[in-house]
Amino acid sequence: MSTDYRQRIEEIIDAADGEESDRAVAALEEAVRLADVHQDIEWGFKARESLVQVANFSGHGDKSLVAFSWILAQIDKNPEYEDRYLRYDLMWRYKWIASSLTNFPHISKEQILNVVEDMERRYKERGLSMRAVERIRYSLAKEFGWEDKVEEHFERWQSLPQDGSQDCEACETDFIMDHYLFHRNDLDQALEIARPILEGRLSCIGVPGNTLTTLMMELFEAGRVEEADRMQRKSHRYATKNADRLWAAGKHIQFLTLTDQLPRAIRIFEKMASAAVKSRELSNRHTFIRGARTLFLRMADRGRKKVKLRLATDFPVACDEPYRYDVQALGDWFSWEAERVADLFDARNGTSDYHDELKEDLELMKKIQPLPRKAKVE
Amino acid sequence: MSSYITEGFFKLQQYQFQIHLGGIIDLLSHHLYSGPHVFIRELMQNGVDAIQARKQIEEEHQGRMDIQVVDARDDLPPTLVFEDNGIGLTEEEVHRFLATIGESSKRNELAVRRGDFIGQFGIGLLSCFMVADEILMITRSAREAGHPAVEWRGKSDGTYEVRLMETDVSPGTRVYLRARKGMEAYFTKDQVGKLVRHFGDLLSTPIYLSHGDWTERINDRRPPWERVYVSSEEERRSYLEYGNDLFGQHFIDYIPLRSEAGGVVGAAYVLSQATSPKVKSHHRVYLKGMLLSDQVENLLPDWAVFVRCVVNAEHLRPVASREGFYENEELEATRTVLGETLRAYLIRLAERAPHRLQDIIQLHHMAICSLAAHDEECFRVFGDFITFETTMGRMTLGDCRKRYDTIRYASSVDEFRQIAQVAASQNLCILNAGYVYNRELLSMLEQVEPDLQVEQVDAANLTHHLEDLTLEEREKAFLLLRTADLTLQPYRTASDIKKFEPTTLPTIYTSNEQANFARQARLTKELADDTWGGILNAFENEYASSQYAQLCFNFKNRLIQRLMKIQDRTVLKRVVEMLYVQALLMGHHPLSDKEMALLNQGLLQMIDAVLGQEGDFE
Ligand SMILES: Nc1ncnc2c1ncn2[C@@H]1O[C@H](COP(=O)(O)OP(=O)(O)OP(=O)(O)O)[C@@H](O)[C@H]1O
Ligand SMILES: [Mg+2]
């Protein structure tokens, strides 16, 4: 193996390219450290640039963010670094970072809004369209409970030019669909909008996985269980790829529980539990915790006392014999954790949305809809 | 809708699709074939098939192909003539097979053994329209002795003419192509020679290329696996030379390949340059002697990154573009057999020339690790030979397994560094699993060898296991620890004291992933503006509050012993700061500005002290 640190960094970057795993993130952090120890700005840029990407897509938004802010700071000090050392468009990535901020409840509302302003300023300086910025303002309005502004942001967003700095077409379509689902409450129109995605004409890293997962729950709530189940099966792999998908995994667990497909719900739970426990993207993780809460509360309702789970030893609920867990204890822990995190977010946002959701989850549990028999075959 | 089309309202009439030949040719040339040059391949293939068909009725028949290049003359463009002494066509067959797109004589009752032929789609000839506006074919069937020769003229506008000829020609087929304007480059002797050799150098049917008075046999060299050798050195030389010529690259070894499935023979060459885990090897593959592609990827199992192959297959099915194989059972079976062959080679190498195997693994380390980490089969092949950095020096996984019942590892390079010195002095073997793929390899090991214990050690754990002090000893260290805690507080580092080997080591600095992250946030904060500074600060507080890094003093170390006797807090503070910075440097941690300042101050004071002593002597 190489002794020269530059070569080592390069190897790490190459190997991590497209990996999107915890290991790749850890390796890139090591690359960053190597570059910093040698005070090598150039390789510091390169290693961090990869880290921004890989961490963002593997559920380590915090690491992505710190690396990104280093790059920004260096470029502010010396603008020519941007062309010299970066392979990818920095502003394109700003969107990822800006939209990940709400994930962390210890970042205040004001701090988040400041960053969006910083983003706006930099986009303006470069003559870019405000479309990407408006998209983020929309999400913030949703997050902070400014419901009356949501439609306004949506319309402004739609009117802003597309100059390539905005999200990709697949993501934008998914976004429009979300707006119809969650703001205009129009499932049929939303399905119509999602058609190019569902027919496979539009896709990207997050689409159709995201879209299918969203529609799965909405179809379920509309009583269209079989269609929902098809969505679930098509996005199953997506939901279990890595910690970035905890949100989707949680939705899947919830759906499978509500349609009485417990073994399948457990399989997803086992696969993702250890990532969820460690994840620091709290809102992403929170959806998983909610799904798991539904799962174990449901099992308890059905009178199940113990469950065998293949979980790593660092799981926060103790088992009584290897791999055997108390259902009640699991239900308690996930309920407690869900409340704790909901507190953090509601406090930051000044809303009660996170707690309301937890109540809605319990309501949904009263509406279990097992799949019709024939649809159950795998 | 259906109500409109009920019978009685309309009389349904059948129409024939109108095919626009220009469109089809465009489709083929831009979307199916990799370029106009493939017309040569298609013509050669048809010749090979025709000769094969003739052999089915005349076993002893000696096939032969002739290709003639005629230069441009006056206002005539350059011309190519492709001739074979194969089965030929009757008039009726000409109408049926040449004039109908998608009709092929190789797919119906005429094809006694369909697998004998390369062609099967009935579109190959169309590729000629990429370079010529007209195809002229003169053909005479070998099936019916009395049948006259036929002349067929097909045009790119989709029309054709057929004429019976009076002159007597011997059975076989000749195709004439005249270069379309702009396509002359494909009609030169050099280019044609190059392409014919490229596509046909493995064909056993002799091919002759002529140009004016000059004639040359193109494919007179046989591949190494068809030759007979008197010695193994001769064989080795022959194989390696062939590979070198073919790929224009040097190889360190070769492995003959043979598989009943797929009817495959050939050779795999061991690459002499490192491969990247993301890039698959591109193999050169022939089908019945004709080159299919030199970019085939799916011939070998994924793990076989260290070789590049050249093979000829008799029974695999090509895809329509003729540039790869169908993914079917036969291909799967072939892949398994070839994989076994490569594996047997590696195992033999491990027994007879382990250093050669080591070389291969070193060279393709990344690629092999990435595959072995995800693929059990590959792990079984290579696992034992993969080397790890350990506290006892570099070792192969196989050695570790032989020597220890429990494999212990540190999960990051950083942690490994923190542990290494202490572990080594206690003869504890700990693997560094901090590099990419290492941890996956260890989980794979666990999966493959369920009896083996695989255990993670982290630095914090390790210090827990170090020997504690007695109460009295603790008392002696009290002031030191208190001062250290206060001093290191701004650096989010706690202190502790234990007894450990080596005694020369005054401290160990341990941190964990969270503390490291908090540290990174702090370093970045020093650079960032206010907008980001606040956020980074929030992260640092969030993560550092629960998890402190730790500086652990070694009670057995002489310097620490002396330190415990010092009562002057300012002196203690300064020494602790220096020990802290030194521990960071030893652990290869980048220093923050503040830590850098500590280091500078400390050094200056030391220099000052030394000079002070000097002064005293004067
Ligand atoms: N040199 C030849 N000798 C005898 N018959 C020929 C010759 N070239 C073409 N043919 C006839 O013309 C038909 C069409 O040829 P073409 O190359 O278009 O299709 P193919 O070889 O059958 O299939 P493919 O599209 O896979 O090449 C062949 O099936 C064969 O009957
Ligand atoms: Mg053909």
UniProtKB/TrEMBL annotation, chain A:
Name by which UniProt lists this protein:
Uncharacterized protein
Q: Which organism is it from?
A: Marinithermofilum abyssi
Going by the entry's taxonomy, the superkingdom of the source organism is recorded as Bacteria
TrEMBL record, chain B:
Q: Which InterPro entries match?
A: HATPase_C_sf (IPR036890), Hsp90_fam (IPR001404), Hsp90_N (IPR020575), Ribosomal_Su5_D2-typ_SF (IPR020568)
Q: What is this protein called?
A: Molecular chaperone HtpG
List, alphabetically, the SUPFAM superfamilies matched.
ATPase domain of HSP90 chaperone/DNA topoisomerase II/histidine kinase, Ribosomal protein S5 domain 2-like
Question: What Pfam families does this protein's entry cite?
Answer: HATPase_c_3
Q: Which GO terms describe its molecular function?
A: ATP binding; ATP hydrolysis activity; ATP-dependent protein folding chaperone; unfolded protein binding
Question: Keywords on this record?
Answer: ATP-binding, Chaperone, Nucleotide-binding
Q: Does the keyword Nucleotide-binding apply?
A: yes
What is this organism's lineage? Bacteria, Bacillati, Bacillota, Bacilli, Bacillales
**Where along this sequence does the record place binding of ATP?**
42, 46, 84, 173
Q: Which family does it belong to?
A: Belongs to the heat shock protein 90 family.
Family annotation (NCBIfam families): PRK14083.1 (NF010683)
| Source organism of this protein record | Marinithermofilum abyssi
